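Task: complex structure prediction.
Instruction: return structure tokens for all chains below.
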Amino acid sequence: MNTGEFRKAGYRVIDWIADYRENVAGHPVMAASAPGDIKAMLPASPPSAPEPFDAILADLDRIVLPGITTWQHPRFFGYFPSNALLSSVLGDCVSSGLGVIGLAWQSSPALTEVEEVICDWMRQMLGLSDAWSGVINDTASTSTLVALMCARERASGYSLAAGGLQAQDRPLIVYTTAHSHSSVEKAALLAGFGKANVRVVPHDGAYAMRADALGAMVQDDIANRRRPCAIVATSGTTTSTALDPIDRIAIVAKAHGLWLHVDAAMAGSAMILPECRSMWHGVEQADSLIVNAHKWLGAVFDCSIYFVRDPEHLVRVMSTNPSYLQTAADGRVKNYRDWGLPLGRRFRALKLWFLIREQGVEGLQARLRRDIDNAKWLAAEIAKSPDWKILAPVPLQTLCVRHAPAGIGGDRLDRHTLEWAARLNQSGEAYVTPALLDGRWMVRISIGAELTEREHVAQLWQLMRDALEP
Amino acid sequence: MNTGEFRKAGYRVIDWIADYRENVAGHPVMAASAPGDIKAMLPASPPSAPEPFDAILADLDRIVLPGITTWQHPRFFGYFPSNALLSSVLGDCVSSGLGVIGLAWQSSPALTEVEEVICDWMRQMLGLSDAWSGVINDTASTSTLVALMCARERASGYSLAAGGLQAQDRPLIVYTTAHSHSSVEKAALLAGFGKANVRVVPHDGAYAMRADALGAMVQDDIANRRRPCAIVATSGTTTSTALDPIDRIAIVAKAHGLWLHVDAAMAGSAMILPECRSMWHGVEQADSLIVNAHKWLGAVFDCSIYFVRDPEHLVRVMSTNPSYLQTAADGRVKNYRDWGLPLGRRFRALKLWFLIREQGVEGLQARLRRDIDNAKWLAAEIAKSPDWKILAPVPLQTLCVRHAPAGIGGDRLDRHTLEWAARLNQSGEAYVTPALLDGRWMVRISIGAELTEREHVAQLWQLMRDALEP
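Output:
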């Protein structure tokens, strides 16, 4: 494809995206595909000869679109909002078009320096002190893995340079709660700690970590010749946006020299609102922190910001310096290859730069405030309706809901919940996420798609009640 | 930005990319920026109010372009070709525009099933048997880390579900050579093995692993109550495209039950040419394999294919299954979240799908053959020139070169090499990568940018000779 062909085909791709977004409310929210539907439409083998671009574009409509779950739909209330605002999409297109790779600063100085500045913009927007340095990772899963590796190396005196984790005489222990994200246990297991050394700290009635219980568990491990290593606390858990008390957890961390990692992947976006910052009070005491700009804030996936207090330690754990990556600029610049797992990196900062400039901080703040108001409104409506229950505090935009008519409980209630949620999702009119809370199914409603206004939330509420009847 | 504004701005972005690519040969190959230049042009704080799109686009020219090292330049011979062909760019734009995230199959069925089929297309293109299953990761660094974690868990009987790596009584050992990529040692260290348990197997005169030496080291470790765990072999090393003898290494792996991981990140693309496949003879005996589609092949970064023989083992090591990700389709579909480190994933298969269809397999093959011919031509020219030396075999498109006039050696020769390479790179006319070989600097020339024709290789050869004089 030469540049002339690219211009023509590119315009059509832009129009295709615009058409999709314009008609997004006309698509079913959840794809109606059955397993294997898409695969069956694709040729089993690659084409030998080139195909015309028309054929490729036509297959987007014929094959891809029917298999798309519509994350930008105004009645998408599943998982978390992943807004991919259109200005951010364009920033990402520029990144693809430039096709540069960050290996060393010299392999594209702008890639590194724009990332540096934009991460610092984000730091300021979140109300964090200038003691933090940021880097863009793909996902929070990766950042949590990096955090636990860094914790492991600090606690073990850089065992990676010697006998590794397998040479430890006293097992290193990680603490979190049953409500932390699935990626936390996964990271601990992949970092080699072992499931037997991951402690599940009890939570309180609001699903937040109990700092007193944490303290007791740490004491117990020390008494039993184990070595407490890291705490992963969550500001806004996946299931219910529960807020672990960072300040009180930090006291335990400080007292025993534990690494404190704060996962604010979803709720961190809310910290661009000064009125929300009390929710992560104590965050300045943490060692590392994640905020995903690709969720509620509106950057196209993937764009997860990992903040650290001690970048030198991060670099000491992650760095490699082969001759073919050394340049004369080393020592005077950041080489982000030494800030995480992958060597190469996309120019990811562009999508965040475009987003922040096109929206302005005030524009982003106004949208998030709208969503929080919508969640409060829906919570109030549900709370005053017979048989419906709000099961957890609603500090931000996520609601945990159950329809629990008198006389139904236990497994029967679970079936009832899963049935009405499935009816709702299969209707294609709205999309919610069933999840377990205290061992029983409930429905999780996550508000915050860009197009979601009060009317769509009201429609959801009606659809939920309609879904009770088969 | 609404869809109307997006159409207008999007056309301009497409034109901006087309203009950049059209004039790519007019840019200096290596960015002329000094450290801090870009940062100094960016506002220290984010804008409160929205900015017009004009201002953003203007800053691409004013701030970003001067800091871009031109990877698509026809005289880019640095690192490795990362072609980002324009059809692939458009596939990536569609991915950004759709803004879907693969968490579970249901969160976008098309994302999962297109990836499944396109990875299988790649398998066929590379001449691999259908015993392999593929998944797209960001980079080879990540895939190698995943491979070593999987090796660790197989050798330790899934220690992650118990005491972890820290509970091992006999240390697990990893084997590789000094010529494997920097990400191999990094992965071993991050996976917790410890540097003391990474064995550097001697290489032969062509910089390939000596299978006999490997066998002896494995025996020695067993005799000393250590547990050999994994071998990382390379098909096409970074420095010189050396080819470890996979078939002979596989015999050692089989004899002692070691995991064999093959890193063909760069050279793997060449295996779409049947005449090259003898280079990785024995690959079917490996447990895991990486081929980066975002290098020579032409997909936009990031698009690294990780192939495994035993996906069930991969899933057993990587899986998490929290309630909020469970759906009715589970068990009948692939959930790629359980195939690697990150939970969420972009619709990365689109850029590869667009590329393969627009080029056709024959189109991709023709380009790679052109590049291999160009490398052979340059190697022959250099070999017949007085004082110039080709330092390693040239199986594909990478040359290791030194200008070594009589009477210059040791540190003085190193200075001479670094000086002419720096002059060449600073000229902006061409870009090469200095690297160490046998402890001495040489210049590495990697041929294979999409626009690089014989005339550009001839120009490089002239520029190299010109650069000898200050």
